[in-house]
Amino acid sequence: MKNFKRMMVLAIVLILNPIVTNAQETTIEFENADSAENLVRTYVNALQAADIAKMSATLDSGAMIYGLDGGLDSLTVAEHTIYYKKSTDSYKHVISGDLYLPVKVTDNWNEGEWVLAWGTNTITNKETENTIVIPFHIASLVANGKIIMMRYFYDTANIMKNTGWTLTPPKK
């Protein structure tokens, strides 16, 4: 059943995202698939539990995290720890609808063992009780039992709007 779910998710990903290279090969059947998936699940569950130490323990000491804090700039493990410490001090994170797909890529620039994760992070401000619903996607590159790179994708305009920012379109 687990492999069936993985194959269905991979089929959906391949249908919705055209392959842009001739050489890339991918598989969902590889030796470390389950352990890589469990590692990323541990990271996401630790966020929900506000266990920053456990989140950080899943990361390689040289890991780089991209796409957090409203930009494409990278965060080191130490900066990631500070970011989520501030976040969990102020907000409660509830993860729902999460789905994980381990994929091994060979013969391409993004070669490695990846875990793709999708879900919804419902964030509630502990002081005001205001809630923001944030659909997310995280692509995590795993090597030697640790996450060595993460790329976060989420709608920052949604967050800005729901935290009181006014988005003004450019003048014509």
From TrEMBL:
This is Nuclear transport factor 2 family protein. Keywords: Signal. Residues 1-23 form the signal peptide. SUPFAM superfamilies: NTF2-like. It comes from Aureibaculum flavum.
